Amino acid sequence: MYIKTGVIERKRLPLAVRNNLVGYSFILPNFIGFFIFIFIPICFSMLLSFMYWDGFNAMSFNGIKNFIAILNESVFRKSINRTFIYTISCVFFTAFASLGLAVLLNEKIKGRGFFRSAIFFPHVASIVSIAVVWRLLFMKDVGPINAFLRLIGVTDPPGWFASTQWALPAVIIVAIWRSMGYYMIVYLAALQNIPKELHEAASIDGASGFKYFWRIVFPLLSPATFFVVLMLTVNSFKSFDIIFALTEGGPGTATTLISNYIYNKAFIAFNYGQTSASAMILLVIVAFLAFFQFKLEKKLS
Questions:
Q1: In this predicted model, what pLDDT tens digit does every residue of 8-52 receive, in sequence order?
Q2: How far apart are CA 214 and CA 110, in angstroms?
Q3: Residue 170: C-alpha distances to residues 47, 158, 173, 176 (Å)
């Protein structure tokens, strides 16, 4: 502060600095939460991946033995393969279904508000309730899905969640059904931001139907598609709750993904060193895929 004509005045900060401080004050709680609940645990997990610890006794340095041990386990290697199959299936079919539903429900059809709400509802519904309903639907002997298959001529329908061959496809079906409503909303928002003048101009030029959608609408949806694919990829690799509620990773290890393997290592085997090593491998895979998607999006845009 300084004195001018006997009056004490405070020197004010420049407007740009004050605006920056206001902005930082809004994001500061998020940074604090990120630092405490994400950054510190990740650092501790990285350290723990080189240790042996059962949660009760003192830690001991284990070097890279944790990584060697899990990479030599067939369960872990198969869980990686299943995770990629699960992720690729969920990303492709969920994005396709979400886009198709968004295009359909963006039209002026009767009851579209109800259908939008009904399709979005599974995303906010209890995962336990979803698991109970779908387990009943997929029951081999009395389930309505197998009853329909028998009706159309399938004499020996699969056991679904009880089958090592069909359990993972059944889980993928449920995951797609649960997620497509949320990403439908993302596509709906993107579709409603497309100017109507483009459609009128395309109609004058003779572009309509699929040609109009493929040449004009779909390229304009590329930012939304990038967001959908990125979020689906990350969430599919992290997927745990829906699989645990439906199959608990079974039968056997037929639906055990990396996330389920990590859970089993931590809370059944009590080997937190190998748990952290598995989590680090998952972190590297997800980070690499996200980086690749950002690079690809930048190149295509």
A1: 556 677 888 888 888 888 899 999 999 999 999 999 999 999 999
A2: 26
A3: 37, 10, 5, 10
